[in-house]
Each structure stands twice: as structure tokens, then as C-alpha cells.
Design a protein that fits this description.
Layout (H helix, E strand, L loop, with lengths): L12 H18 L1 H6 L2 H20 L12 H28 L5 H29 L2 H15 L13 H17 L11 H25 L4 H28 L8 H7 L6 H27 L20 E7 L4 E8 L1
Antiparallel strand pairs: 1-2
Helix pairs in contact: 1-3, 1-6, 1-7, 3-4, 3-8, 4-5, 5-10, 7-8, 8-9, 9-11
Length: about 325
């Protein structure tokens, strides 16, 4: 579970933006050395941090001025390089750890060859990532990000001095309504494409929930746990959908010619096992979806399409400050 910072009292949107962006930049740098070595967890975490940083910059785009060398487009370039390594890690681990021990004979030998080919691709992708992280382009991006963290530049906007708690809560409700109204939350048996798009929507919501927790407290703690469960489950479903499309020959997207050849042909057990695991994951998703709809709808509302809602059921701390011209005279913390 991600560490939650102790919230500062009554942060403004500008203060929250500075704090959140600086935190993401620090965390991104923290995993760099391990990613250069090829450490699986470090590459995963660094990729996550690029996404979180892009989400923070998008969230506060009305407050922070865009950076020419540290904008979302340049972060996407880094994320793609990390993703090419991470995606192979996920697929290879799924096949090797989950399914290889259950196979035998010719099919096990074929899967060993396939895993070996994936690991070779992983080695090539990591070599390219190391070269990228040793380039002048990467050094410029890193320096620009560190500069943004140290010296944030703000727009002359109308809400930069508003309270961060209200600003972030509004964004949470907005993203949650998108999730509740999504086809993946409505259809009885959602299509793979709808579930993939829903995963992206849930991920955006989760990031805003995390940012709220880091700066304003745990008013949405249960919602954070639920969105994390949804995101993880949808991510596993997507991994299985990708593999099943490769085994069926319906898609060669992401597979090299050598890998596509290894996927091709008759497999006796493996696709069936993948499909069975995918069905179990779908049932888990439907249970999580039911919990989501119960939590985000008032009692008696059974039609989420008409007016989807997202409510925080935990007590939320409210902080009041009595301020003199030059100093704070008193601070009162009320829990409602």
C-alpha cells in the first residue's frame, strides 16, 4: 500500500499542487538506479511514477504552467520505454510461474521455448532502456523535472488559492461519475475493449484519490481500497485477453515474428487454462463492481445510468483557522 503523507492543515490548491508534483518527482528518481540495473520491481515502480506524475500535471494544469522540457508528452516517451520492459515481465511471469508447472511433455517444452523468447525480448528492451537513460535527452528531462519540483511556476488562475480538499473532492466526484457511467460498469458481460477502457478510467480516479489522501486526509479511504482492487483485477483481465488473442492468432500486436510463430499452432491445455483463469477474474470483477455500485449509490437507487453518485462515508476532518494579519492565533480541528 502506498505511503500516505501527514496532511498539512488547510492546504490551498497551489500548495497541494507543489507538494504532489514534488513528491512524484522524488519517487521517480528513487527507482532510477534499480531500473538501470534491470530490477523488475524498480522498473514497475518507475513506470507507475511516470503515470502518476502525468496525472498530477494534468490535474493541476489550470494552476501550474506547462513545462517545455518536463511536460506530459516527454514523460510519455519515458513511460513507453519502461512499459516495453514491464509488459514482457508481466506476461513471462504469468506463463512461467502460473502455467508452466501445470504442463508436461511437448506442451511444456513449447512453453519453455516461448518464455525463453520473451526473456530475450526483455533483455533487448532493457538494453534500449539503459541507453535511453544514459542519453542527453533523458538528462534534460530529469533536470527539468527536478527544477519543476524545486521551483513550481503558477498560472494566474481563479482557483489557485481555493482549498485543496474541496478542489480534489470535486475532481474525485467527477472521475467517479465517469467510472459509474462507463459501459464496463453497466453491461451484463462487458467486452474486452470496454474493460480495458474502464481500467484506464479507474486508474485516473485512483490517482486523484491518492493525491487527496496525501494532502487532505483519509475521507475516501474505503474508496481508495475499492478502486485499487478494481484496477488490479482489470489489469489481470487485460493481460489474459492479450495472451488469448495471441494464442488464437487474432492479434499479433506486441509480439515479435519469433514469438508469434511460437504462439501459433495447436495448444492442448494452455489456452483453456488461460480462459478459465480469465473467467475467474471476470467473476471477481463483477463482485467488485457490485460493491462499487452499492457504495456509490444512495439506498433505494438502483439505476446507476440515471444519476451515478460517488459518496465518502467516512468522517472527514474539517480544519478551521483563526488568523491575525501576521500570524495564526488559533487552530481548531473538528471531526464531523
Amino acid at each position: 500500500m502506498r505511503e500516505v503523507l501527514s496532511p498539512a492543515p488547510a492546504l490551498t490548491v497551489r500548495q497541494a499542487a507543489s507538494r504532489i508534483v514534488a513528491r512524484q518527482v522524488r519517487d521517480l528518481a528513487r527507482w532510477e538506479k534499480g531500473a538501470r540495473r534491470g530490477d523488475t520491481e524498480a522498473i514497475h515502480q518507475m513506470r507507475v511514477q511516470t503515470r502518476r506524475l502525468r496525472a498530477a500535471l494534468a490535474l493541476f494544469s489550470g494552476v501550474l504552467r506547462p513545462g517545455r522540457r518536463a511536460g506530459r508528452a516527454r514523460l510519455r516517451w519515458l513511460a513507453r520505454a519502461l512499459g516495453r520492459v514491464r509488459d514482457v515481465d508481466v506476461i513471462a511471469e504469468l506463463l512461467e510461474a502460473r502455467h508452466l508447472p501445470e504442463l508436461a511433455g511437448v506442451e511444456a517444452a513449447r512453453l519453455e521455448d516461448l518464455v525463453a523468447a520473451l526473456k530475450e525480448r526483455r533483455w533487448r528492451s532493457h538494453r534500449k532502456l539503459k541507453a535511453l537513460m544514459s542519453s542527453a535527452r533523458y538528462d534534460k528531462l530529469k533536470a527539468a523535472l527536478q527544477d519543476r519540483a524545486r521551483r513550481p511556476r503558477f498560472r494566474k488562475a481563479g482557483d489557485e488559492d481555493a482549498m485543496a480538499a474541496r478542489f480534489l473532492a470535486d475532481r474525485i466526484h467527477r472521475e467517479a461519475r465517469k467510472v459509474s457511467a462507463h459501459r464496463g460498469m453497466i453491461e451484463r458481460t462487458p467486452e474486452a475493449a470496454d474493460l480495458h477502457a474502464l481500467r484506464i478510467a479507474v486508474k485516473r480516479l485512483r490517482y486523484v484519490l491518492d493525491f487527496h489522501a496525501e494532502t487532505c486526509g483519509l475521507a475516501f479511504d474505503q474508496e481508495r481500497k475499492l478502486t485499487r482492487g478494481l484496477q488490479d483485477c482489470l489489469g489481470e483481465i487485460h493481460d489474459h485477453d492479450l495472451l488469448l488473442s495471441w494464442f488464437s492468432g487474432q492479434s499479433d500486436q506486441g509480439a515479435t515474428p519469433v514469438e508469434a510463430q511460437l504462439f501459433a499452432g495447436a495448444w492442448r491445455l494452455l489456452p483453456e487454462r488461460l480462459a478459465a483463469d480469465r473467467e475467474r477474474l471476470l467473476r471477481r470483477f463483477l463482485r467488485l463492481r457490485g460493491r462499487w455500485l452499492k457504495r456509490t449509490e444512495p439506498a433505494g437507487i438502483v439505476a446507476p445510468l440515471e444519476e451515478p453518485r460517488f459518496v465518502a462515508l467516512e468522517a472527514a476532518p474539517v480544519q478551521l483557522r483563526i488568523a491575525a494579519p501576521q500570524k495564526t492565533v488559533a487552530s481548531l480541528r473538528i471531526v464531523r
